[in-house]
Amino acid sequence: MADDAPTLPPDTFATRLATLRARIDAACVRHGRNPADVALLPVSKTFGPDLIREATRLGLKRFGENKVQEIRDKAEPLADCGIDWVVIGHLQTNKARDVARLAAEVQSLDRLELAQALDRRLQQEGRALDVLLQVKTSDEETKSGLAPADAPALLRELARLDTLRVRGLMTLAVNSDDEAAVRTCFASLRTLRDQLRQDAPAGITLDRLSMGMSGDFEQAIAEGSTEVRIGSALFGARSYA
Ligand SMILES: *Cc1c(COP(=O)(O)O)cnc(C)c1O
């Protein structure tokens, strides 16, 4: 009997990545999406350079972080890995200089003042950044992001800043067990994107929708996500000690 007992695969980063990718692909198939159209953004916040290095050996090259200080700490020991650091957390304007030096992309752009600070620093560095606008799709006080109604005006201003290439929108759904409420958040981001596209400034195509995390990425894929941001389902539980 023991011979027939199913053996659990070892709990390594590689097996967690394979399991996760299989779940993403299965959700795509269930919802009529092409798996090639849903990217995985591993979120490495709180995890150290050794684990991130292991992840790069499996082909991962972009990593999401929500604190600029963590990017500063990790960029140097991982300088040989060719990582694209993606800022996904609330950004203070006084961090613009570090972001302009170290990040490849910002998904949490939520106000003009921040965009202008980034633009100034990027010009000094002679660099450009891909950006997503973070939009608030739930009423939770703790979530940042701009109100959907403010998106058209911000988009028009951003079209004038050469250093920022607007690629799409990002959101966090309400933190809830109510699946319908979660899906409503994701659906509203897609609807907003479709509306914004109708009179988007020239050159801004808004192809990307960054939505879905470890607990809700399947619903996000159902609603059109092009990029899921996954931390704990890949790296394991975080400890903030
Ligand atoms: C931490 C974080 C994630 C990933 O969260 P998990 O639940 O661990 O997958 C995604 N997006 C943002 C903005 C985050 O801060």
Automatic annotation (TrEMBL):
InterPro entries: Ala_racemase_N (IPR001608), PLP-binding_barrel (IPR029066), PyrdxlP_homeostasis (IPR011078). Residues 21-238 form the Alanine racemase N-terminal domain. Gene3D superfamilies: Alanine racemase. It holds the Pfam family Ala_racemase_N. PANTHER family: PROLINE SYNTHETASE CO-TRANSCRIBED BACTERIAL HOMOLOG PROTEIN, PYRIDOXAL PHOSPHATE HOMEOSTASIS PROTEIN. It comes from plant metagenome. Keywords: Pyridoxal phosphate. This is Alanine racemase N-terminal domain-containing protein.
